[in-house]
Specification:
By secondary structure, the chain is an alpha/beta fold. The protein is built from 3 helices and 7 strands. The longest helix has 18 residues.
Length: about 180
């Protein structure tokens, strides 16, 4: 029997990821997440998915955020995930392809962002000036704004959604252990 497929998403889940099966959500340590990702990658069973179309020209911001989290995982958690992992042979892997079930789980990586040293909160982030910019100007402005942000390494968290057989559910377990 082959290795379980591990779908990997940054930040997002959607209802279609849970096709009526019983599942639970567990928080993993960095060590556990590193082991799960490494094992799935070695078995050829790691599939990275994203809510946004990371290949679309209008998703520069989303690509930049994915790159930042990939870099933070590599630099602070010793976990190797690259932006190219979110692409299949023809396109970006959509989040809707991830289905938690008997042979697949979904690992979601979350984090918070902070302004880079000395960047401060820019007044223009919420100004009306941005609304008056052309599409190209707005894209450059967004790219500059994103460059001032960075992943807060201490905020990185890992949650795995995994299939649970009904017979294995403990009715006395705290409600937060299963959804």
């Amino acid at each position: 029997m082959g290795h379980r497929t591990t779908f990997l998403s940054f930040w997002d889940v959607e209802l279609s990821n849970f096709p009526g099966e019983t599942f639970r959500r567990r928080v993993l340590s960095t060590v556990e997440a590193r082991r799960l990702i490494g094992s799935a990658r070695a078995a050829g069973a790691l599939v990275c998915v994203a809510k946004d179309d990371l290949g679309a020209p209008y998703c520069e911001r989303e690509r930049a955020q994915h790159r930042q989290l990939c870099n933070a995982l590599r630099d602070h958690a010793d976990i190797e995930v690259q932006l190219k992992d979110f692409f299949g042979s023809d396109c970006a892997n959509p989040l809707c392809m991830a289905k938690v079930g008997v042979h697949a789980d979904l690992l979601v990586v979350g984090c918070a962002y902070r302004f880079a040293e000395g960047a401060g909160v820019a007044a223009d982030a919420a100004s009306d000036v941005v609304a008056d910019m052309s599409g190209d100007e707005r894209a450059r402005h967004r790219a500059a704004y994103i460059a001032r942000m960075s992943v807060e390494p201490e905020s990185i968290e890992f949650c795995v959604f995994e299939h649970v057989e009904l017979a294995n559910i403990d009715p006395t377990a705290p409600a937060s252990r299963s959804l």
